[in-house]
Design brief:
By secondary structure, the chain is α/β, with parallel strands linked by helices. Helix content is about 30%, strand content about 25%.
Length: about 250
């Protein structure tokens, strides 16, 4: 790690790592200290910078992105999204999570491609990466946003909406709460999880990109996922090997 990268990532010997608490696949515990894949990777990054780590938790990815302009963190673990790129320099993706829809019993919708039709109302979590993607790409269906994942499920069931958008692992759990509910075949995007630094920190961004590729190729990332027994995560393709990588970067 170069001196410039270290100074940008861990000024004064402390790395402030921003965590998205709503992403239960990457942050499995909040207290007494954050635990999971993302906290472990932050700890490893701090070790390489010869620094201590300070975790800064946010209730959703949008709040993490907002805090970039306030110099509130040094590295963030959130999805790469074009709407966030003005403030944040993202690494290549290290993980991918399929996003799809949950529909109620008796729904005529059979596949993801059926959802974008006039009159279809979709419950979703405001400011989630997959919601930003749907805002860009839907042409006919209507998004109805709620604050947070539990609220989006409550909106879906309480207002009798046609579909609930979300990450596949979470929707599989939600389906167990609703008799006859099912996930649609296919996916509308794969949310790509990245690390980010403030856009002005070029040396840190360069180091992080190399760090991401190294933890994928060395097996460190796979070992970390296995240690936390996380289901529903896929390791993103290496640079130069685009096989299996989805077209979208939501």
């Amino acid at each position: 790690m170069s001196t410039d990268a270290r100074d940008q990532l861990a000024p004064n010997g402390r790395l402030r790592a921003a965590l998205n608490f709503s992403n239960f696949l990457l942050v499995s515990a909040r207290a007494p200290e954050p635990g999971g894949v993302a906290p472990d990777l932050a700890r490893e990054l701090a070790r390489r910078a010869n620094a201590t780590v300070q975790y800064i938790g946010y209730e959703n990815a949008g709040l993490v992105a907002d805090a970039a302009k306030d110099d509130a963190w040094d590295v963030a673990f959130i999805a790469a999204e074009p709407a966030r790129a003005n403030e944040i320099a993202f690494t290549p993706a290290y993980l991918e999570i399929d996003a799809t829809y949950l529909v109620p019993e008796g729904s005529p919708l059979q596949a993801v491609e059926d959802v974008d039709r006039p009159g279809v109302r979709i419950a979703t979590a405001a400011r989630a990466a997959y919601t930003l993607y749907l805002n860009r790409t839907l042409r006919h269906a209507t998004l109805v946003e709620a604050v947070g994942l539990p609220a989006s499920f409550d909106l879906f069931t309480g207002s009798h909406l046609d579909a609930l958008a979300g990450l596949k692992p979470r929707l599989l759990d939600d389906a167990k709460k609703l008799a006859g509910a099912r996930l649609l075949d296919g996916r509308f995007t794969a949310v790509q999880q990245s690390m980010g630094v403030r856009a002005s920190n070029a040396a840190a961004a360069q180091y992080l990109s190399a760090f991401v590729e190294e933890i994928k190729s060395s097996g460190l990332l796979r070992t970390t996922i296995a240690r936390h027994d996380v289901r529903g995560l896929s390791i993103a393709a290496q640079l130069g090997d685009q096989s299996g990588r989805p077209n979208s970067r939501a």
